[in-house]
Amino acid sequence: MELTSWAVDRPVNSAFALPQGFRGRLAGRFMLWNDGKQSDVVRLLDPRPGSRVLEVGFGPGGLIRRLLARTEVALVCGVDPSTDMVAAARRHNRAGMAAGRLELRTGTAAETGYPDGHFDHVVSVRNVALWPDLEAGLRELHRVVRPQGTVLISWHGGTDPNRIVRNFRLPDDKLARIQDGLTDLFTSATRHELTMQTAFLAVR
Prior knowledge:
With 204 residues, the protein is α/β, with parallel strands linked by helices. It has helices at 21-35, 39-45, 62-70, 83-92, 94-98, 134-144, 163-167, 172-185; strands at 52-56, 75-80, 102-106, 119-125, 145-156, 188-193, 197-203. Strands 3-2-1-4-5-7-6 form a 7-stranded mixed beta sheet, sandwiched between helices. A hairpin with a 3-residue loop joins strand 6 (188-193) and strand 7.
């Protein structure tokens, strides 16, 4: 299935963009292995004990698993456009589901389905360039995070990217568009170079 993207001038036809079927499951396995190592993202997000976190585009749930195991957040919620990934993330996080600390549903950055100011933190890892409408997504994340809450958005890049990551880096004008969009909506927006990701942290 081809998707449109604000970041490129052509349709996106990738199993990583909307994981479905056999190719989607293979992409999910890779994402699960990779996303489980997001220690630098968790450090930058720095979720408060007892807080509520929303992940946009959670894939098979690797970062969710780390948040539930390594932090004291009260609740992690997630939206992902792929029903296959929703099912996979639920399987990989059965304990969190059973404990009432995890809620997953289909949705997108532009349409999360959650109320205004519902979250203390929102995080989106390596999927912002796949959103059809950047500004609509940023407005929605601003809406669902509480005042003084934080939004973290990252994409491939960073201080020590491997060859695969380098192939997916966004040009400077696209990165500037993300930061400018956040600056227009939020009280502050800062850029951070993690090991293999470029991240933007915004405070409402």
